[in-house]
Amino acid sequence: MTRNLVIDAHADTLLKLYFSTLMRFSSQEADPLHITKEYLEEGKVDVQVFAMFVPPKLEKIGLDVTLEMISLANNLAQEEGYTIITSPTDLDFLSQNKESSTGMVLSLEGAIAIERNLRILPLLYELGVRNIGLTWSRHNLFGEGVSFKDKQGGRGLSKDGILLLEEMETLGMLVDVAHLNYEGYKDVVKHVNGPFIDSHSNAHSVCSVSRNLTDEQLEMIASANGVVGINFYPRFLADKPEKASIEDVIKHIKYMTELIGTDHVGLGSDFDGIATTPLGLENASKMKEIVPLLEKEGFSKKDVQKIMGGNYERVFRKIWK
Ligand SMILES: [Zn+2]
Description:
The protein is α/β, with parallel strands linked by helices and 321 residues long. It has helices at 13-19, 37-42, 62-80, 88-96, 121-126, 159-171, 182-191, 215-223, 234-237, 246-260, 290-296, 301-319; strands spanning 7-8, 47-53, 83-84, 103-109, 129-133, 174-176, 197-198, 227-230, 265-267. It has a single domain (7-319), classed as TIM Barrel (Alpha-Beta Barrel), CATH 3.20.20.140. It is globular.
C-alpha cells in the first residue's frame, strides 16, 4: 500500500542550525526550533524542504555558507535519520515504505551561491540541491525580490536569470518564485516550460502585505500547473497578526482554492524562518491539525491529500529527473 505524502515546501531550520552549533546535535536542546525530526513525525510530515538562505551580511561568502549548510544537512540526516531525497524514485520509496524515514529536500532560498559562477550549478545538483528560489526580497544577479514595503517596482529577470532558468531545466531542478517581484514572475512564466512553485506565500486579497500574491500571480502559478505553499508567518496571514491562528491558514487555502482550484495549493510553513507562529501551529508537530479543519470546510479526502502534499509531489515528480 502506498501512502499519500505530506510535504512542507519551506523551512529555514538550516539557518538556525548554522547560527547555533549548540542546537546541532540534540533536538532536546533545540527546543527553540520549530522543526525537529520528532516534531515532523508527530505532525505526520513525510517530506520537509530545507531551504538554504544566505543572510545579507554574509552575501560575499554566499557559496561558503551554502556549502556549510549542505554539510549541516548531511550531518542532520545521518544523526537523526532523515533520507535526503532527489528523485521520483526516492519519492516512490518514501510513499511505498510506511516505515521509511522523513524525507529531506535541499533548496536554495535566493541563488546567491552561484552568483559569481553559474558553472557551479551542476555541482550543487550533485550535492542534492533540487529546488532554487531565484531571489530573496532583494536584488541579485538574476533578478529582483519584492520589497517588504512595496508590492510594485523593480526590473524583471536579467540575462543571467534567464540563463539560470535554462540551466535548471537542463539539470532537472525546480524553480521557486517565492520572494520574486511581479516583473520577474512574468519572465518566469515566459521562459519556464514546466510547472514552477511559490513555496511560501499567501493571498494578497486576504492579507494585503507586499510579500503576498495578487490574484493575477496566483493564476500564473495555476496556468503553469504549479503550486503555491501557504506561509504561516502571522504578518502574512492576517491584518491583525497578533490574533493569527491556524484558522487563517485555512482562510488562505479556501480563498486560493476557490480562485485557482485544489490542484495548485500546498503548504510552505516558513518554520524556523519566522519569529512568531500562529495560534495552533506553534511547530511542525501541529501540521496534522490542518487536516480536520479542511475536512470541516467540506474539502474531499482527495483534495485534502493534494493540499497536504499531493500537489507538491506531482510537481517534484514532473521536474526532478
Ligand atoms: Zn522566505
